[in-house]
Every structure is written in C-alpha cells, then in structure tokens.
Amino acid sequence: MIEIQPPARLEQIFLHFFDIHFLEEKGRSIAAPILQAEMVRATKLAVASASQVLIPAASYFESSICKKIVDDLAELQNIAAIMLVGSAPNVEEFIRERADASYYGENSAQSLAYRSALNFDKAVPYVRRQSNTTADIVAFWDGLVQSGNFVNKLHSPRDFPLSKDFEKKLELVPARLERTAFISEHVYPLLDLPKDQKGPLHWRLRDVINDAYFKSYLEEYQAGIVLDLLYLSSNLAPLVEYNLSYRRMIQHVRRTIGIETFDNLSPMELFALGDQLSWQLALLQSPAYVGGSGGTQGPVRTQNSERIPNLMKKENNILILTVSSSELAAVTSYLNGIFGLPKLFSVEGDAKTYVNAYEDTTSKAVWYVAKSSFQGEAEITAYASELKNALSPAAIFMIGMCMGMPKGKMKPGDVLIPNEVVLLDHERVTEDKNEFRGHQRPVDTKLYKLAELVISGMSSNGFSVFTSKGLASASKKVEFQTAELLKHIEASYPDVLAYDMEGAGFYRGLKHMEHSLWIKAVADLGEKQGTSTEEQENKTSAQRDVTENALKVGLEIGKNYLAMLAGK
Amino acid sequence: MTEFVANSHSNPKRIVIVGSMGVYGKMIELAEELGSLGIPVVTPEEESEAIQQLSLFDFEEFKRKVSFSYLRKIRDPRTYAVLAVNLDRHQILNYIGPNTFAELAVAFGQSKKMYVYQTIPEAYLDELSAWQAIELRGRLVQLIDDFRRDCMQEDLQLKLPIG
After folding, report:
1. Closest CA to A415 of A456, A379, A458, A464
2. Model ipTM over 0.90
C-alpha cells in the first residue's frame, strides 16, 4: 500500500535550475523577463513550501540572477530557510578554491566570478556537503560505462555515426580529467568532439554531467525538486516521492490569493504560507509531472500521481459511500474495530477527495470509505461516478440510513436492499396542485441477486432485512408524516417501503452497473425531529446504530462477492 | 559571398518553428540564425507578465486562443515549412511531445515541408518517415539550402565598391 503523509511542509527542496550550466542550456531565453519571472516564482514557491531550500553555492556566486533572487529573500537567511550548499569547509574557502586558475581555467567566466567574490562579506547560511560532487559524478559516469548502455543514452541509430573507439574514450574520461573540473567543456575535447559546432551529442553529454551533479545533491539531502516548470523545464527526474509542482501550485495561487499578491509578499509572509493547511493540502493534492508543461509539450506522470497503486484496482476492493456525518462515523467506528486503523489515500482526477482504506488481512480485501460533502441526487450522481472512475472498485455500496414509510412494515433498525428505485425529483407545479412524476427503474443486477441469497443465509442480528421491495428517492428532506410527497408514494407505489435523498442518484451515477448496491437501515418514520440537545444526541446515536446494521449486511454481501470473484 | 533575396516581396515565404516553451531559448537561437540569413521565421511568443496575472479560467482561455492562432500560422499559405525543435526530454532522445506532433500533423495536412531539428524519435518513426519529415541532426544546413532553392533567388545586382 502507498500511504500518504498528513499535510505538512516539504522537508527540503533543491533548486537545480540555478545551476549555471543548466542556465547556459537555455540560451538567449535566459534574458527573457518571463523566464526570470518563472525563476523568481519557483524560488518563492519553494520557500513557501519547504522547511529548507538548498541552492548550490556555485550557483549563488556564478549566476547573477541567482544571487539577486537569493539576496531579495535575505530575511529568510536568519531562519536558515535558504542555505547554500558547497564542498568546502566554509564559504570563504569555497570561493578561494574556485578562484584558483587551475580549477575552472584561468580565463573562464567562473574563475573571474570567484576572483571578484574574494572580498565577499555577506553571512549567507552555508552548509558543507559530506559527499564529494566530483567523486559522485565520476561514480555516476563509471556506472553508466559499466551498464553497457551509456552509448544508447547519447546516440540514437539515426544520428551521425560515432567513432569506433568512442566507448573506450568514454571510459577514460574520468582518468584523463585528472584535477580539472568535471564539466562538459572539459569533456568534449577528450572525446574528440568539435568545440565550435555543437550538436545533440554535446548536449546529451552535458545533460549526463548535469544529471550526475544534481543527483549528487538530491541523494545526500533526500531533497525534492521543482517540477513542471515551463521555460526552465529539464530532464531531471526526482529521487524522492514528494516534490513541488510549479504548475499546480501556481494554479493554487491563482485560485486563492492571486499572482499579484503572491509576488508582493514579504519573505516571511511567503514562508508563512507553507504553514497554512490549505497550502499543505494543495502540495499533497498536486501530482507532479516530470519535465515541462504547456506550450507544445505534454506532461508525463511520475510515481507521485499514482496515489492509488494499481494493485488496488484489482477485484479485491469495495467502496463504501456515505453521505451524512453520522453514517461516516458509524462506518468508520465499526471498521476500525474489526480491521484496525485505516490508511488515508488521496484520490486525484475529478473526484479530488480522500478515502480511508481498510485492509482485511485475512482475505486481503480492501474496503474504501468515502463521504459525499452534500446530500441530494445530483451530488451523489456526480460523486459516485467520479469515484468509480478513479478507484475502479469491484463493487460500490451506498451504506447509511433512510426513512421508513410511516405506514410501511419496516421499523427503525431494519435494513432494506431495494429491487427498484423511484425517483421523484420531477414535479409539475400548477396553481391547483403539485403533481409528482416518478421515474421508476428496477435494480435487478447480479449483485442484488447475490445479496438476496446471502441474506437468506444470514442469522438474525436483531433486525430484519427486506428485499424485493422498493425505495423512493428525491432531493427533499421530509420531516412530517403527512407530507404530500409521502401520500403520493403510498398511493402510487405501494411496494415502496423506504425513502431517502440519494438512492436514485447513486444508481444513475453508476449507470445501474452490475456491482453497485444501496443498503440502508431505517432511522425514523418521518416524525418531526426534536430540537433539544438531548433529542439531537439521541437522534445521532440512533442514526449511528442503524447505519451499523446496514454496514453489517453490506460486509457480509461484500465478503461473499469478493470470495466469488477470487474463485474465478 | 552570395546573397539571397526572397522570390516574392509581396508574399514572402517563411519557416514556422514549433516546440515546447522548455526549449524556447533554442527556438530563439535558431530563429536568429535563420533570420540573419534573410529567412523569415515565426516563433511562439513568450508570455507577457500580464498573462501571469490572469485568473485560471482566463489563463486557460488565453492558452486556447494562442494554440489556435499558432495552428493558423502553420496553415498559412506563406508558410514554407515547419521546424520542430525536438531536443531530448523526459529521458527520451529526440523527444516530440503530443502538441508538437499535432502541429506537425497539421503541417502535413497542408502539404508543408517538415523538419525535425535532431532526428525522428522512435515513437513517431513510422508516421514522420511516411510524411517525409527531414532530419537535420542539429544543423540547419539542409533547411537553409532547401529554402534558398525554393523560396529565394541569388541577388544578381552587383555591389560596387564605394569610392
């Protein structure tokens, strides 16, 4: 099972897009205001979302854009929310090392940048890496060589042919680099690649080195990255499960505080955003995609977005759908008692909800429990359909309470599994009267027929279970026994024994699918509801008790159904 | 140096560049290179800051309009060819995303020439080979030569030395 964490800030995010080689790849677009705006916003989103944002120290000193963005968030340095990460013991030593001509080359842009930083006097939080980046890149490179797949990463069959000894040259690169930096400009001549005319092979080598460089940081700090960038998109794949989706969080900002407000927040206000539950939930609900999005490039799903693992979609799980808080409480309490505490899952797509999942360790069946936010036919129609598409369960049960017809033979606590449902939302209103126009549909699915067999073999639980009788359903809450609607039902549909507000919508949403079943117990007979605290408490308690009856019946039917499926 | 000018000044042919915003820098670079040789180029416009301020609904509507408008540019009679900037993405060599592929399909439907900047990715080998997409392998030489042959002529007017 995949278990999600309760909402929280992300631990650490590594800002790879500040790397100077990464920025070089972007070419002229680096000067474009829109790309720089994306860089600023991505940094701000990271600061808002993570406890700590890590930036390669090299990026801070070698990229003026990076330095400006970090300096604008200087306030956060006081709480170490932004940290520079480097291999030297301290920042002064870091600068001195790289200012040396032998490191980057005498006249390189990097060397010049560090020489001018020798008088650096800012106290930017800095943490020394334990891993050695160069050693990690070498290890990564050697691993690729040994995999025998390195050339396939660099060359497709339709590219220009490679020299016969190209693979051998690849193998020798780390040794031949000696003490010079493991950067693409130093690698090209070792592979006899032309300096002036660069092509796909050059870019792929650069990507391999960049990947190794970034992974060195990600592995040491188990940090997430910012994904779904548009102008700053890259091939870098995340290493940890929880990352920051730029696209989704920007959408969240648009929906909530607005981009303009977000852009103008102070650093501390930005950081405080991440303590809000709504922000943390947005982080969890945002599946992250690898690579860019928008423009002419489509998204690719990462493992983050598979909140419900595929194994859950096999024929070993049943969804229980509830509507009221009492129903949910009853179901949860009962299932906690027999299966233990559930695991919480996030459901993506149109449903956008959470479900509790209970595992029956004996049968390996999984029972999902979800609750609709609203009553009524239309709401349940949509919600049931969305959950069915998202979870693809073996069966879907609607479990809860209903009203018994005042003149019917059901009493509170009795359970009904109807063989037909009458929808009574359609009403013709005239000056003289209201005409109810019912739409009746049978529920003669295979699961219903199985239910009848299972119930016939159930021992008495202190309540009766009715089948072969009807249910009336409408989006109207009825609280008096002589309501016109109830009179109409009694007169027109004598087989109807109970009434609720969602039954017809439930079956409509699931298109009367073979494995859906409405199972509810009578909580009242349409009497006027008491308003005192004691009456309300008694009512709630009674609702929970009867829901438990319906659940017991549902569990019995479900177990038999899953056992039958497993036996196929 | 031989100079070339457009065959028709009233209706000059052009190249439309397609690709994701993630390779925007490369698109601009290639557009500048072609432009320096007198070859008109159409590239996607970068989004202005004002667009970022739009609500989600308005932003999506803006994106729809932009996509539709760009397909019209591809179909335009002045468009000689489409150049897909298919740098490696998502761990896939020579990646062409669904949107870019759709734009290539529109170009094919309008009998425009199609060029891919690197080589044809495996995923679309059958289709793009059948559609006779031309692989540039990271160099614009063939595109430039083809455009000059089909859309430009040598500037025969002598350039006399001054003085």
Report:
1. A464
2. no
